[in-house]
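Support reply, case 0932

Customer input (verbatim):
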Amino acid sequence: PCECRKPGPGMLISLANRHGIDLAGSIMVGDSDRDAEAARRAGVGFIRTAEASSLEPAEAIRQALRGVLC
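Our regenerated output:
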């Protein structure tokens, strides 16, 4: 499989290089095991949202971060 498709880290690494993002200091929010594995392989922190969430993205992130941020 192509490393540019999750769970390969290629897409994350490519975007980080293009935009000057520090992956080790970043957090990825996702809803699947493939997302979690891509984050792990890229050295990115990971927060899981509800799988197949019907929530708007911003609300899904707020709920995922509840209790993580003060």
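We compared this against your earlier run and they match. Two observations from our side: The chain has three helices and two strands. Helices lie at 10-19, 33-42, 57-65. Please reopen the case if you see a mismatch on your end.
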